[in-house]
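Pilot study result, target chain (201 residues):
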Amino acid sequence: MDHTTAETRLLDAADTLFYERGIQAVGMDAIRAASGVSLKRTYQLFPSKEHLVEAVLRRRDLAIRAELEAYTSARTTPTERILAVFDYLYEWFGQPDYRGCAFINSFAELGGASENVVEIVRTHKRAFAEHIAALVAAAGQPPARAGQLLILANGAMVTAAIAGSPKPAREARAAAQRLLDGASRTDRPAGRNGAAVDDVH
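Predicted structure:
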């Protein structure tokens, strides 16, 4: 087994087991058994379990960024691209193996013990925030709207995992739509009574 094959098998096995059971519940023996890579070879590639955890999270980070970029960019209008974030979440939450956001889960497990994991999690969430902020800017929405949408998205991730249902993504999408519509209305010139021009009869 060459280096690349062994590394891929280890990352695939560790990613699956960490996500299904939690990082602390999974030992290196379980990863060895699931990957088919010997324990000696495993430690040659990843000197410690923490190194493996970090590699798994970094790989997942890049994959999610690429998936989300492709998913949102396929939509036609700037507003549709924003709402596509929540459509992406709905499809993700609907997968039978959905157990929440791996980065939120990892922070909950290891946030107090591993500075490296904390930094990887923050980097991932910062990239997610920047993606939403770019979509918001392209749609001509107020910059503050990005933070509000981010809270909706991250909140939906946690709620869906606990509820075991993709429904929170739909609820978050509806709330996002109301926020976007509200911004459009408040950005219109106001009439003498303070209402948006279109509301003056």
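One observation from the pilot: The CA atoms of residues 5 and 37 lie 9 Å apart. A full batch analysis is planned for the follow-on phase.
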